[in-house]
Amino acid sequence: MNHKPILLVEDNPDDEILTIRALKQHNIVNEVVVARDGVEALDYLFGENRSESSPIKNEPALILLDIKLPKIDGIEVLKRIRAHEQTKLLRVVMLTSSNEQRDLIASYTLGVNSYVRKPVDFSEFVRAVKEIGSYWLLLNEAPPNRNGVTRDKTASRTKR
Amino acid sequence: MIVLDHFSRRFSIKEPSKTLRLSDHALAIGIGIAALYWLIETLLDALLFHEGTVLQRVLPPDFNEVWMRILIVSLILALSGTVQSNAKRRRAEKKMHESNAFFSGVLQIANDGIIMVGASQHILLFNKGAEEIFGYHDSEVIGRHLNLLLPERFVDGHPQHVSSFGTEDESSRYMANRRDDLFGRRKNGEEFPAEVSISKLVQDGETLFSAVIRDVTERKRHEDAIKNLNQSLEHRVKERTAELTASNAELEAFCYSVSHDLRSPLRGITGFSQALLADSASQLDQQGKEYLDRISKAGVRMGELIDELLTLSRVTRGEMHVEQVDLSAIAQSIAAELTRGDPEREVKWSITEGLAARGDTLLLQDVLQNLLGNAWKFTSKKAVASIEFGKTRHQDKSAYFIRDDGAGFDMDYTDKLFGPFQRLHGIREFPGNGIGLATVQRIIHRHGGEVWAEGAVGKGATFYFCI
């Protein structure tokens, strides 16, 4: 079991509560860090210095990324994650309302690990979150650890 | 006609024909006669008068006989020379007359204006066509400068053009390739667009220019009308394209927003009702639990409707890839799939082989999926059903059809059949969301085709489409 935190990038407070509730229901004990827009997500990952060569600030076990977000959208966040040497292997799952073609194409083109559309039905939603959690945190073999990662959990803005 | 005199004078006349004529040889005959005279006189002198000559006897004694002979021979020769030149002149005159008549005829029947000017650009010739175009009588322009016929703004440039042409080797020039800047001026001052070709002729060392002028006002008017029409058409196409692009972009943005934003609150509604059911079940009575359940289900249903609307809009939003589509093969595979889904049912499928159409494979697949799916659904209450796919002539059109012998529909409601979310059957009777036929219609319309239906309650339905 990977005990690093889960980064949930979600601007809708209802979805935030429901996602965390669903994760807890399935005994996923990882800390959930919430970023409410793309800028917060990038701040959490990279800190102030976003240059591609500087070391990253936090390395979550999994990123659940909404697409339609204030300031910087999920697609752009994904692009920056994939562009950085130290975050390019991070597991990123799009967890979003839309199944529009262009979102799917953009996400997969940028190398997203999974694309899950949030179901309206809560029981289905709970099942989807459970499957994401168990697959990416338990079943799937994580990419090799890198050296020199700082684990500064105090920097996370929101903890639940 | 003065002009013609002027004109024809400038044309060289063909060489006289080579046919032998008396007059052509008058001089030779004259020389012959002179020689004969000399011979006869010498013979007479010898035969009749052994001493002296005929002339000595005839003429007074002080008359120089040699001069007399020269005088007689000269007279003979001069006479024959005159005869010959007179004949030549008469023939030339006749020829000239014929030539005049010929050119005069050509000029008179020419619809085009023909003008001839000399090197100084003074008008020498002005035919009937030119009179009609310019509105001048020839007597008004003969001898006047060509500038009379040109708009003021060309007066400076034109003579140069003409004289430069005069020094070039070209013998003719068609000026219509510069159609847009050639204009003439009528007597009433009106300008008109003209098409002009000029040719050069050097006669007796003098350079002459003749111009054939065509008034293209009418043609230009037609051309301009066509040009304007094309421009306004192009403009309208651009406008419409811009409108379409804008409304497509709007639709795209709208759908994107619906897809992202409209479903979120629904998830809140269903999610928290179910959370409440799970967490606080003990505090709720049976009715309260049932209401929460209904809220949650209504939310889920609304989510489905939003999804269906988005699906319907995708039918018109996506790009079409037109190719040859094997409709029969698609129908076969859909029929097989439906049968696999409910193998207990007894349905007689009758699918005509080899039906094909040009269109987007995925979209046409959607059409057949919906129509055959409907046929399958609305025959579900029959012990033995039959479903047919074929091609026929209906309402004067060649159309594909899907026919079933199922529940059918009331023709009074035909116009409602293809509206989104319109249903002619209760949800409990036949499940469905009323989006299938709306999708079919959109796809067929996108292919430039038509779709219509016939049916009767309890007697089945036939859906026709042509693309």
Protein described:
The complex is a heterodimer of chains A (160) and B (467). Chain A has helices at 13-25, 38-46, 74-83, 101-109, 122-139; strands spanning 6-9, 32-35, 62-65, 92-96, 114-117. Chain A is α/β, with parallel strands linked by helices and 160 residues long. Chain A has a single domain, classed as Response regulator (Rossmann fold, 3-Layer(aba) Sandwich). In chain A, α1 (13-25) crosses α5 (122-139). Chain B is an alpha+beta fold. Chain B has helices at 2-9, 26-47, 54-58, 65-109, 128-134, 138-141, 152-155, 157-167, 217-279, 286-317, 327-341, 361-378, 414-417, 436-446; strands at residues 113-118, 123-126, 172-174, 183-185, 191-203, 206-215, 322-326, 346-351, 356-360, 384-394, 397-404, 450-455, 461-466. In chain B, the strands form 3 sheets. In chain B, strands 1, 2, 3, 4, 5 and 6 form a 6-stranded antiparallel beta sheet that branches. In chain B, β4 (183-185) and β5 (191-203) form a beta hairpin. Chain B is rod-shaped. Chains A and B meet through α1 and α5 of A and α9 and α10 of B.
Tally of discrete structural domains of chain A: 1
The oligomeric status of these chains comes to: heterodimer
What is the CATH class name of the largest domain in chain B? Alpha Beta
Biggest pleated-sheet summary of chain A: 5 strands, parallel
Keywords:
heterodimer; A: 160 residues; alpha/beta; Rossmann fold; five-stranded parallel sheet; 5 helices; 5 strands; 37% helix; disordered C terminus; B: 467 residues; alpha+beta; Beta-Lactamase; 4 domains; six-stranded antiparallel sheet; five-stranded mixed sheet; 14 helices; 13 strands; disordered N terminus
Write the topology of this structure.
The complex is a heterodimer of chains A (about 160) and B (about 475).
Chain A: E1 6-9, H1 13-25, E2 32-35, H2 38-46, E3 62-65, H3 74-83, E4 92-96, H4 101-109, E5 114-117, H5 122-139
Parallel strand pairs in A: 1-2, 1-3, 3-4, 4-5
Chain B: H1 2-9, H2 26-47, H3 54-58, H4 65-109, E1 113-118, E2 123-126, H5 128-134, H6 138-141, H7 152-155, H8 157-167, E3 172-174, E4 183-185, E5 191-203, E6 206-215, H9 217-279, H10 286-317, E7 322-326, H11 327-341, E8 346-351, E9 356-360, H12 361-378, E10 384-394, E11 397-404, H13 414-417, H14 436-446, E12 450-455, E13 461-466
